[in-house]
Amino acid sequence: MRQDSGIGVLDKAVGVLHSIADSPCGLAELCERTGLPRATAHRLAAGLETHRLLARDGEGRWRLGPALTELAAHVNDPLLAASAAVLPELREITGESVQLYRREGTSRICVAALEPPSGLRDTVPVGARMPMTAGSGAKVLLAYSDADTQQAVLSEAKFTDRALAEVRKRGWAQSAAEREPGVASVSAPVRDAKGAVIAAISVSGPIDRMGRRPGVRWATDLLAAADAVTRRL
């Protein structure tokens, strides 16, 4: 769930951007996705189009605009820079999908992802927001979160506080068919210079390839990758 800033028009405009990010749409569908009145949705989308944050495709539907890419090119994110060389190497070692997640409140956001060149894969788009109630990446981020966040999530989670204690003990987490049927994953924490966990690095793929205990196979390589990102930070 996205946070509200308390600035109504800004929150609505950001909601429009996120709704259109899922897939291009026309005005009627935009109203359905956002719950906004027709006039409000049109006014916001037209304004965002003026600023090139939205654009129109060949069928007249709104899509994300070029200004977003231009702005993103100026983002200086130390975490992404530190992981730029590590994630491709981890993908080559495992032959599976790799991701990097940050926590935001009681959600986790995929900030980087690479897919194997062929075969069945677990595709997680960059920018995808997921609840922290399932998956190895969620366990890692929640295990090192504050007590209030843990309490808020655990009541609906597919794992217990005992699982989080195990993550802290061995330094990594695994899951099988927890976030999505047929998908397994293993994750490890990425730390900053002070030792605080700021992200989770993950390997995910079909259970048929990774098995129901993917940590047995990939935890060592994943921990090495997490340490490599931490050192580069």
UniProtKB/TrEMBL annotation:
Record-linked SMART domains: HTH_ICLR
Domain of life: Bacteria
Any one Pfam family match given in the protein's UniProt record, by short name: HTH_IclR
Residues in IclR-ED domain copies: 67-233
SUPFAM superfamilies, sorted: GAF domain-like (SSF55781), Winged helix' DNA-binding domain (SSF46785)
Keyword set, alphabetical order: DNA-binding, Transcription, Transcription regulation
PROSITE patterns: HTH_ICLR, ICLR_ED
Ranges of residues in domain HTH iclR-type: 7-66
Alphabetized Gene3D superfamilies for the sequence: 3.30.450.40, Winged helix-like DNA-binding domain superfamily/Winged helix DNA-binding domain (1.10.10.10)
UniProt record, GO biological process: negative regulation of DNA-templated transcription
UniProt-recorded Gene Ontology molecular function terms: DNA binding; DNA-binding transcription factor activity
Protein name per Swiss-Prot or TrEMBL: Transcriptional regulator
